[in-house]
């Protein structure tokens, strides 16, 4: 087997795997998580953080100059293993809570889906503000009436 064919095979395989991975993540992000368990929600958040970190690291690796002494076949193989290393590094970093992005997303999603008993939704906040404003307006109106009643 020619090494050029092998590197072409790996390049095709990696491209297809990357497409499947991003499609899977996109489908998971579009899902309705209102009935999700805490573990399911955290898993999706960790997957997103790993994907985000992987994309960041890949862009950082692109800034490293490559040597011109290697052949095209070697370059493809090195690129494949470099991408796999970056993917694994991103996954491990996410498991160790390196960025904290997954935890922040998890907490925000719980608030947005109304799963956090200690939080209120933006709609509830707007209703409370409106109620306070109405109460304040009524208090001012009542005070004005009381003052005008004592002046007579």
Explain what the structure shows.
It is a single chain. The chain has 152 residues and is mainly alpha-helical. The protein has two domains: 3-119, no CATH class; 120-152. The chain has five helices and no strands. It is elongated.
Helix content: over 70%
Separation of the first and last Cα atoms: 106 Å
The main β sheet shows up as: none
Unreliable stretches (pLDDT < 50, length at least 5) are none
Overall structural class, as computed from helix and strand content, comes to: mainly alpha
Number of strands: 0
User: Which shape, going by the Cα principal axes?
Assistant: elongated
Rg (CA only): 27 Å
Percentage beta strand: under 5%
The domain count comes to 2
Mean pLDDT: 75
Number of helices: 5
Please write the string of helix (H) and strand (E) elements.
HHHHH
Task: Please outline the helices and strands.
Layout: H1 3-30, H2 38-62, H3 72-95, H4 101-112, H5 122-151
Keywords:
single chain, 152 residues, mainly alpha, 2 domains, 5 helices, 0% strand, elongated
In short:
This protein is an all-alpha fold and 152 residues long. It is built from five helices and no strands.
